[in-house]
């Protein structure tokens, strides 16, 4: 239903294409010009569509969530935008009452209507996500947690460095208190001149490079395999064949693994 023209039309054939086609029709264009020229012919007046303050607030919060998802902004960026809007428009009751924090943001995203119309198109491609994790000392134990998940389209050292630095500063963490930096990303663990670690080291002299021991073990086995005096692949295939052909043997092996764990 187009309340501007007060007519119904079908969107069965091409969906958004049908809507765009109707918008381009002469009747719709003439009706829009008439409404713009005469303030008394506004949509809400002409068709008695009243908008409560709560509906305005819901529309604003929904639109802001849509914009955040569409442009791949973070929770931090979303929260910062809300704070700025409240300061820019102190006389607006709608702006003053916006309370779309992280928890409410997530619930709005997973509402069925928005999930179908906003998230579904964005999930048709792969998205590279980078978790920013911190580990720190408390009075009693060592604690760790995830600060932020960010979408990282380009995995260059400069982009990773800029995003990590932004997340740390946005969470009010002092860079001069950063002691160590590590990741399983190649741009962090290698490269003396152009790597994420090298870029941070220019700001923080004496920064310790964190090493992923799983990668060290993997690389050791990978390169050590070239110097073995027997065919490791053939040995593994024989071991697999020995257990996979017998249920009793495989069950004994399963029980052994359970005992070890």
TrEMBL record:
This is Uncharacterized protein. It comes from Rotaria magnacalcarata.
């Amino acid at each position: 239903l187009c309340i501007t023209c007060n007519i119904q039309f079908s969107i069965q054939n091409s969906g958004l294409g049908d809507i765009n086609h109707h918008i381009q029709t002469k009747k719709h264009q003439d009706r829009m010009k008439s409404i713009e020229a005469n303030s008394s012919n506004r949509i809400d007046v002409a068709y008695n569509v009243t908008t409560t303050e709560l509906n305005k607030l819901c529309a604003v919060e929904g639109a802001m969530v849509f914009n955040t998802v569409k442009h791949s902004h973070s929770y931090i960026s979303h929260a910062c935008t809300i704070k700025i809007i409240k300061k820019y428009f102190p006389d607006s009751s709608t702006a003053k009452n916006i309370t779309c924090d992280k928890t409410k943001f997530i619930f709005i995203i997973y509402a069925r209507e928005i999930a179908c119309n906003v998230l579904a198109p964005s999930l048709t491609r792969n998205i590279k996500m980078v978790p920013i994790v911190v580990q720190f000392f408390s009075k009693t134990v060592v604690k760790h947690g995830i600060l932020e998940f960010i979408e990282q389209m380009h995995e260059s050292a400069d982009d990773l460095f800029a995003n990590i630095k932004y997340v740390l500063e946005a969470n009010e963490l002092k860079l001069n208190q950063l002691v160590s930096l590590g990741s399983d990303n190649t741009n962090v663990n290698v490269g003396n001149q152009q790597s994420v670690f090298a870029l941070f080291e220019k700001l923080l002299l004496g920064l310790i490079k964190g090493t992923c021991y799983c990668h060290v073990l993997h690389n050791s086995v990978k390169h050590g395999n070239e110097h073995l005096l027997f065919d490791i692949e053939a040995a593994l295939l024989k071991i697999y064949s020995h257990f996979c052909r017998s249920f009793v043997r495989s069950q004994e092996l399963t029980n052994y693994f359970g005992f070890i764990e």
